[in-house]
Amino acid sequence: MKSFIGKRAIASGVSLVVLIVIVFFLSRLTGDPTDLYLPIDATTEMRQQFREMNGFNDPLIIQFGRYVSDLVQGDFGQSLRQARPAMDVVLEAFVWTFWLAVITMTLVTVAAIVIGSLAAFRVGGVFDRLATFFSLIGAAAPDFWLAIVAIVIFAVKLHVLPTSGTGTFWHWVLPVSVLFIRPFGLILQVVRGSMISVLSSAYVKTARAKGVRSNSIIFIHGLRNAMLPVITVIGDQAAAILNGAVVVETVFGFPGIGKLMIDSILLRDFAVVLAVIMVSALAIFIMNLLIDIAYALLDPRIRY
Predict the structure, then answer these.
(1) Which among 252, 271, 254, 273 has a CA at the least distance from the CA of 262?
(2) Distance (Å, rounded) from C-alpha 181 to C-alpha 264?
(3) If pLDDT is split at 50, 70 and 90, which confidence band does 218 have?
(4) Residue 53 CB neighbours (<10 A)
């Protein structure tokens, strides 16, 4: 297991280096941020001073070398927009996205496993058909459309929920609800399909013949073996939210890492963009590592 984790860490590190190089040079292609941060009537001398102060006059390769040198020393640069360390800005936003992901994925995982397992126990029944129908709709529904519809119905028409912010419990309802729908539909379908396969196996038929209760068959005998493919999907969806629910955070004005990324790209705040990429990549690496550990715990063969 240690060897496997080490190999994954090396592969992830190489991927992170390549990603940083690509994002660094692509972000510079968006143009000079000088015009965005200086007034329209700024003189040529002021513009030149701004570029010189931030190192924009140097060739790109020199700028990249300086960035790598600072990065090795733990310096992720300064935010042009907020005039403070870029990593501080990113970590503040990441906390909001982290809790949004934890709340959403906890609700999604519990609901999808319970409903998907019950649907698989009576394949073709009314409950199974309803669960399949609504999960397919949820999996296919685009987040931006759901967010706009939710705002129109619950905020504009009914006036029962706020449209943006994080001040109270009610500010979290719409973002969590919109983020809940698509992963719930995807995970429920995987749980259902995996459980159908497991419940038709010989050992489950034997348990039924011995008179084992249905709840025990579903949630004790069947669910553990059915969880291997489910874990992968749960991990992918959790990583997607941790990586920044860009559309949902932007629509609801949620101060997470997704909205920060969009704002920083538009304002050419290069240091923050690169810090977001760094934090997001590390979050995905940790999530994938947790998935591998969960696989090993559920399937002893993987440990050997």
Answers:
(1) 273
(2) 28
(3) low
(4) 9
